[in-house]
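As promised in the previous annual report, we have extended the structural survey to additional targets. Below is the entry for DUF4037 domain-containing protein.
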Amino acid sequence: MGNEAFDVNGFIQGLDAIFSAHDAATKAEPYLLDSLAEARRLADDAGQLTVINELLGFYRSQGRHDDNLPLVKESLELAKRMGLEGSDAWATTLINAATATRAAGKYDEAEKLYREALESSEKTLPPTDRRLAALHNNLSILYSETNRLEPAEQELRKALSILESSSVNATEDVDVASTHTNLALILMNEGRDDEALKHAAEALRIYKRGHLENSAHFASALAGYAQACFHAGDLANAVRAYRKSLAVIEECYGHNDYYTITKENLDSVEAAAAKAGVAVPADDGSDFWDDEGSRFADDSTTATKLAGAAQSFDWHVDKERQAMTSSAAQAAPAAAGAENTAAPSVPAAKPVATARPAITGLKLAKEYWKNCGKPMIADRYPEYKGRIAAGLVGHGSECYGFDDEISQDHDFGPRFCMWLTDEDYAKIGEQLQHDYETLLPKEFMGFTVKGADSATPRAQGAGRREGAFSIGDFFEGITGYREAPGDDPAKAHEWLMLDEATLAAATNGQIFADPLGAFSKTRQGFKDMPDDVRIALISRRIGMISQAGQYNFPRMIKRGDGAAAWLSIEEFVKAVSSFVYLINEPITVGYLPYYKWQFAALRKLCRGPVTRMDDAAEQLETLLRLSSAACFGGAGFGEGGKGAGPVVRQVTEVIDHLCAEVLTELRRDGLTRSDETFLEWQRPYVEEHITNPWLKSL
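The corresponding structure token record, generated without further manual editing, is:
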């Protein structure tokens, strides 16, 4: 057996067969784990490393990032034991490890691995090797995810330089086109709309020169150009680009998710164009991306009208990024898919005291920062402009993105936060706050800036929600902790003291700039809930789902205690809502906010293309609609005096349906071996997966 080797080719063929048969959801993981066990049995290091690399990719596609982290460590140890350091295989192992680590939100570790891979590759590869471009693109994604736009831009420019110098014909190279589009997305977020348009247009020219307009990936470049036009206020070309993108998708893919999402974006931009009175020319087959005629909207009235359209546009753009793919997927981020880039913001508008656009608080905050805050820092604190983070996070409906005109009756107005390290805050924090309060305009885009005298008491003094903060003070003010408890088992109880609504407030909103990455890192720490804690909370939630919905609701109905039955439904709804967020993982979807925005957030989550239990919001709303009749209908209630019985049966059916879905999700994550439908009895199986004994139920 010592001479027996793992059959790598057979393993790859078997895995390919599973994916070709579309059986990956049920067969890929058992096959991969069995193969890894066989390679380990044979003590075949090369075989183990091959399987682990495939398993890393599979778990990443499933969002199972915590499962990947031990494999990352094992892959690096195997590669070292095999003496691969300094080789191409070592660089590949580092890249796979870094990408898995990045997906798990471990950005510092991921950056070190990417840097090590880059250093290793630069020693073994010629300077024009396209694999170096792939590495720079990967680093750009990481920087983009941590809101470090300047280094993200620098890495993309390095990638572009390598691709152009290595290409047989850079003017017709699809990978060059993809990098131009990704660079445009970064530049948009830096407020450099003119440059962004140039890069987005150049990507389209490359497809044109290469006669690749019928390529599916041309649609991604068109959508990126449409987004750039929207940013710059050119609604006519934004509509034309989305229409053409949609046509290419239909030809190449038919009516898939990508088509649906792009159609939603097109509808939103067409509505914005109609609202702004912008005429869209019919498609005459011309290369409209070279048309300078209507590109920039200088008129402040047009910019004001655009603001309302942007509200309904954000979510679709986020979804579109998830759906798009690129021909350069291995060498570059997807053409419109540089992860975590912000959706189109309101085009820059001059403050007009008499015009108040329909605009969300987050968009208003970003415009106030770009037009007023950022210039003030550049003028008065030039040595700190590369050190100050800015955005809007914390308490207030606008931080969740759910505010509307009704929200504007209190604590609403142009505002943003600036976050500094403790050292920087000690030096300039008080003066920066003074300048924020006294030097910035008191009116912006028709809105009045709220002063201390006009804010509600809860938003004053120590509870103020805008201006300058040290990073630690800011998070301590929301959570009681200057940084997240981390993954130390001894601090697990501290996570349990942080309810989900508090964690939602600490991780919501939007970061407009974070040159140091320090604020993003601290904020990410609060999203990175240890899996032991998450599973412990899942156990608690299924316990309440079972007790309130499966056990106490029917008992209270039998007793005729409608109030108690109604409260049982309330507890059931809260527990299911929390479970949906926990099973989709906070590091990916965040946390369930407080009761006021619970359903707004749940509806938005359930609209996502890959959300688990995506019918939960609809089912729970149905449950709430029926609850009054079920709990208080009485014996003679309803048509024909049939009483509340039929409605009670409907409520029970919804409860049973949701409990069955919960069980499906537990089994999908391997958290139970049991088929028991009464969820309280599932808790011991779930808690077998908790390593910290203090987190298990008594």
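The chain has a mean pLDDT of 82. The domain at 1-124 is CATH 1.25.40.10 (Serine Threonine Protein Phosphatase 5, Tetratricopeptide repeat). These points will be discussed at the next consortium meeting with the crystallography subgroup.
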